[in-house]
Amino acid sequence: MVVAKLITSGKCYGVHSFIVPVRDLNNHKPLPGITVGEIGPKLAGNCLDNGYLRFDHVRIPRNNMMMKHAKVSSDGTYIRPKSDKLGYGTMVFVRVIILQQAAMSLAAATTIAVRYSAIRHQSEMVEGEPEPQILDYEAQQCKLFPLVSATLGIFFAGLKMWDIYIDVYTRMQEGELGGMPELHALSSGLKALVTELASNGVEVCRLACGGHGYMKSSGFARIYGLLTAACTYEGENTVLLLQTARYLMKAYQEAKCGRPVQSSVSYLGLSEGENTYVYGHSLSDLVFLYQQATSRCALYCGKLYYYK
Length: 308
Hints:
mainly alpha
């Protein structure tokens, strides 16, 4: 499948997907007008055939265009989909999968680091006593225990995102597209946050294992190499964070105008300076505090964005 600009009747309609034969089915050589090549070794995943592809006046039938939503008729007329956001479906699906993969990668790294810290003994703290496990040191605990918690947080966030995706996708099949902007914003922001957090976490785990962590046999090199790639594929993280921020600014404007917003951003309607909540130590109390802090950040950014 090739993603390329669609130009018909002299007008560009943005990128669309096309089925393009690349190699001859008999000898596996590139077809006329097609040049393929290897881009060289990567940090990891070198078994994957990433490369470059160039087309020179290559023609394909009109029916090779993926026309489930957008279509081009035989006379070249472009038929728009019900919503431009329908194209987000596959992209969002992959981002949801990335969340689950990131959780598994960070889980592997923390497992290696915690097990190593449990069997590695170093530095006699009390004369005549056995050297303690390095896991007994508070500094080591401060490095690893938050990452164990983060792994669980990412894992359950991935499960929740999967449920949201299935719900929105099911409603999309019935013609209800209202959930797509929220799903896109949630998956974009979480993908950026999670992949960066997990990538940095793997590096912390490696450092926590000292010189042994630098050995290839530790497994960290492969985990880090595959995980850090997720910071750039399926959307570079900076771009995704900006897309989520854009959604938040739109939701902020809607909330401040008294219009309904999606449940995930309903906290943006909290009035400025609202402080009548009696705080405790329950999960709902902590969630509300985070919502209030986020609402204030959105309020500050919204004022800069809309009233500059």
